[in-house]
Amino acid sequence: MAQESLAPVAAITNLILGLITIAMSNRGDTKNSHKSFSALLIGWTFIFLAMYHTVEALLGQYYFETYPTAIDLGLFSYQGIVGADILVLILFGTDTALNILMLVMALHIPKDLGRGKLWNASVIATIAIYCILVPPIIFIGGFKLMALQEFIWVTVGVLWIHTYIRGIVLEHNTGETKYRSVSKASAILLIIWIGWQMVWWLSAFTFLNNEWFVSELVNQVENPPIWWLVSINFGWSIGAIAISVLFAGEVFRSVKRGMSVESWIVFGIFFIGFINWIQDYLLLDFYSSCIEGQCEESSEIFELINYLTSGVLIYLIKPLFLVYLMVQFKIVDTSSEQNRNLMRIMILLILLIVSSSIIELIQSLIPIPQMLSGSILAIGIVFFIGWEEKITSKFLSGGSEDDIESITGDGFEDSMLKNTSLVFSFVVFYIIIMAVIFANAGV
Amino acid sequence: MSDSSENFQFDGFKELFDNSLTNKISAAVTASLFLLLVVNAVDVMGNNDGVRSVLDGNNNWQITFEEIIVTQTDTVVVADGDTETRTFTIDETLLDEGYRIGSFRMTITYGETSGIPGDPVDSVFTTIPQSDMNAQWSDENNTLSDSSSDGSDIDLMLRAYPDYDGQMRNVTGYNEIQVLENWNMDGYGIGEIQIEISVETQSLPLIADNEEEVTITLEIITFKPVAQQ
């Protein structure tokens, strides 16, 4: 059963969303500098995601298929093919930029943890220094160093988990709904960034992820360093703990106050953990086949389940939830007509792309005729056009006053916002240039 | 407010830790995370040790073959100028557990059967024609046709299993299954194998010698691979 890669779809979606978000970040009648900075962070997240998925799609088209865990854990080595090496190095560089973006986002959304001119300048300088220093260190020092960056995931995860727990506890103690907005934002951010790790929560608790990793360990020519082996579980562990806390929090809240959309999402991801665990359990022999038997090339079940769980979370849910976050918490000001139109484009775009991707997903599972799937998509488009006003209004009016107030902070001057965009623009070019230099040098 | 506080204000960070119950729950969660990380790290290091013991251990293997030869015989009387075909059916019931067919050896024997002193020996021509049987029909070591005109035995050989010659081999691999993979394929040598026999008699004048009795001995060489480090 062949599955179409979602990477090209994700690349286009993220690119358009990124450009629109950055354009909207500095506009609006009721401009809030902290929200402008948050919008910039989200906008550049879209751009780096677009860059990542574009390169991923090119690599798959011309050289070999890759998967995000291979990048995060540095499971590559130089191929000796300049084109492939350039693309892989760009992936490493982009992943590095996304890691530091995630950390900076955790320091600003939902709560602005630090304030002050020097603090804000330090944050922007840190982004620049990190993105300038870390990729060359990884290119020279060995790709396995990538795995150490998962420590950022742990830090960010702990921070957002704490914010989530605080929101749940204070909402219960005080009855004030503003705390729900904080816990909701934290939960969404956790799902956006480490949601694809959460789906392996039961396998993390039962060590089955480590059994899967045996299939990677057999490809290591030399005994890997201990620090790398320790780092491998950072992502899975923080994912497992995060979804467990979210699940417990949402169950508690559902009992006390009733269920919300966010509760259903958390329960859905929690449930996927069981499916992935069953899959892991069934494939135990496959994982250790190279050691205990004959190496098996690949498992169709593994590919399919990965495609439907982690794949969907990485490629489709990430941009969808980032848009949801922006709309729900009014990170971009939609009061002006100009921004409202851009937001309208954004919402319709994400709805259309997600619905067409879902149809594609269904088609890869059930061989329904393309005429039928095309008709279903056409019906969807007609529906979206006909109800465009209502759909966008519903989205734009979705956020409560508490949601809007929950993301707070200030202190960003216009020049600082411009510098942020300049830094990220420089990072994009720097990553590409570094990748070309290092790949050609064959370090 | 001093300049330094304008530059760095961490009110938001302080506010994050203003609730003791939250802090306690978060501390427990962080401790659980730390514990999970430690236990998983120990587990993955154990897995790595297991993998390294195989990868960095002795990966040299010696493969030897235990052989059992299954013999079938048939006798046919072939008239002068005629060609007779004999068919042997080979199926799995002939094989012991774990054995596969390596090759076929056919020995065709005949003598001068007229019994008349001085009667010259007849000529016998034999061929194993290619059939649907899964075997190495184009192997250069095969002898699929031969003849004799002095009464000596004719030896024919067909290799059934790829590369099988019964000789010991040195290979590398991580485990027995991997090194024996090439020697555990089924289906080779199963089916029908035929032999075509033609006779040209040589006789003394006035003596009728117009046929020859030919005995076919088919040896099915079966083997079982054994891997040792």
Task: Walk me through what this model shows.
The complex is a heterodimer of chains A (about 450) and B (about 230). With about 450 residues, chain A is mostly helical. Chain A has a domain of about 130 residues. The longest helix of chain A is centred in the middle third of the chain and has 32 residues. Chain B is α+β, with helices and mostly antiparallel strands and about 230 residues long. Chain B folds into two domains: about 55 residues; about 170 residues, Jelly Rolls (Sandwich). Helix content of chain B is about 25%, strand content about 40%. Chains A and B meet through helix 5, helix 6, helix 9, helix 10 and helix 13 of A and helix 1, helix 2 and helix 3 of B.
Task: Detail the topology: elements first, then pairings.
The complex is a heterodimer of chains A (443) and B (229).
Chain A: H1 7-25, H2 33-62, H3 68-72, H4 82-108, H5 117-141, H6 150-174, H7 178-198, H8 201-205, H9 208-217, H10 226-257, H11 261-282, H12 284-287, H13 289-292, H14 300-328, H15 337-365, H16 370-386, H17 388-396, H18 401-406, H19 414-441
Helix pairs in contact in A: 1-2, 1-14, 1-15, 2-4, 2-14, 2-19, 4-5, 4-6, 4-19, 5-19, 6-7, 6-10, 7-10, 7-11, 7-14, 10-11, 11-14, 14-15, 15-16, 15-17
Chain B: H1 3-7, H2 11-16, H3 20-55, E1 60-79, E2 83-90, E3 100-110, E4 123-127, E5 145-148, E6 154-159, E7 169-172, H4 176-180, E8 191-200, E9 211-228
Antiparallel strand pairs in B: 1-7, 1-9, 2-8, 3-6, 3-9, 4-5, 4-8
